[in-house]
Write a structure and sequence with these properties.
The chain has 189 residues and is of the alpha/beta class. The chain has six helices and five strands.
Length: 189
Amino acid sequence: MPRPTRADLAAAHHRTIPDVIAPDLAVLFCGINPGLYSAFTGHHFARPGNRFWPALHRSGFTPRQLSPDEQDLLPTFGLGVTNLVARATARADELTADELTTGGARLRDLVAEHTPKALAVVGVTAYRTAFGAPKASIGEQHETFGPVRVWVLPNPSGLNAHYQLDSLAEEFRKLRLAITHPGTTNPHS
């Protein structure tokens, strides 16, 4: 697919991307909202420089690094992806607190319907707002959504300078190990 022009990106504003979801997932990953590049392509985490796909592979969730246009393969690995807010924006800070809270309620319903083993929200600030959890930190949360364990992972955007790829993949790996080793308990309890 050719790189989008400025006009292409402007036209992608407010577009949505369908969820990639199936029954019996190990992990449902939840982004904040699609960026314009992702909305243009129709693929989650599609912007060059986004580290979601490399982190999935380096953490052991996938046997090779998938590209965004292979997102439909995720359920074969027990994985899915959705967003807190469906509409695309240039930056996540364009979203309102009300949109994030509404998205959090929709996410709870989605999780109740599909019951993955774990929900992983990528972006601690968005999680705090969406779920009224101002002290939430990276890692497994005290709160569960029914039987579903809830994790917060660092935002994989290339703009997140706090986490380089290796440390980002390590946080993803901790989640993978926790769900593949059922005796693992919440480190925050």
